[in-house]
Amino acid sequence: MANLTQHMQLITLALLVSLSTISILLLRRSIHCRLANARSESLQQLINLKGLIRLTQNHRGLSYRVLNGDTSQQTELKSLEHAIDAQAELLTALQTIDRVADYWQGFSDHWQRLQQHNLEVAADNNLEQHNRLISGLLSIAEDLIEHGHWCDLEFKDQQSNIHTLIDLLISAEWLGQARALGSGILASGRCTSVERIRMNFLKSKLLEQLHCTDRNLQPPLSNLIEIIELNFLTEGSESISSQHYFESATRTIDILMEHFDRTTDALSCRFRV
Fold it and tell me: Which of these, 155, 225, 226, 242, has the minimum number of CB atoms within 10 Å of its CB?
């Protein structure tokens, strides 16, 4: 009888160990699934956010040109506003992420106000409001990386490094600011001392990005810095047209965003998100 009791105790212990092991495995799988879902969600939202940032940057550049006298862009502005509204619809899920919900609500409210009175405010004020909008979107991008627990991972190369995405978005934003300011200056046909100081500041930021960016991205970035130097910071130089400058800056931004797309593709493949 004692042997039977001992045998039953051993069986009970074995069952408890098995159940504990299964519970641990199920818990690990649940955590893994939640992390995978968070990474998949954050990466897709980063891709959508990149699209919204680009549209808002374009809207800023065209608005500043119109407010400085280039009225030919007004029709394009309306099309851009519809595109921004449509792109923002893809990001409504941000409202459910505690880390970014306030930033997203702030963008939505600010954008609605600016859209209603976009061409009624002074050019400098308009430029600054767009800058603040995009700054908020960049903050969301950084917080999405935290939300997806990407910082817990080790990245051995730039091609599939989540932090490369933020660097590219920041570089594109300095370019976008230089594009908006410069095209507005060229549209007005004059460059004030304040605008020259701002452009010199933006050039210094682009030089910082040049020194730490991927080697393949350095030539187009360097070329635009040279255009800025010649057209806005060198006395007596001949200026290109506002449209030509806008398109040159846009091509440089396009190259950075193509690199962004390749990086998100690499991340998707590497982590199967």
Answer: 226
Identity of the amino acid at 26: L
Residue ranges per structural domain of the chain: 49-271
Give Cα separations from 63 to 72, 172, 265 (angstroms): 11, 18, 33
CA 49, 50, 52 angle in degrees (round to 5)? 65
The CA angle 197-118-45, to the nearest 5 degrees, is 85
Contact 70, 242 (CB under 8 A): yes
pTM over 0.90? The answer is no
Token pair in block for residue 60: 């800023």
* Cβ contact 174:205 at 8 Å: yes
Tell me which of 48-62, 95-109, 153-167, 237-251 is least confident.
153-167
Which residue is it, tokens 């893809």?
90
Alpha helices in 213-241 (DSSP H): 218-232
Distant-in-sequence, close-in-space partners of 229: CB < 8 Å, separation ≥ 6: 203
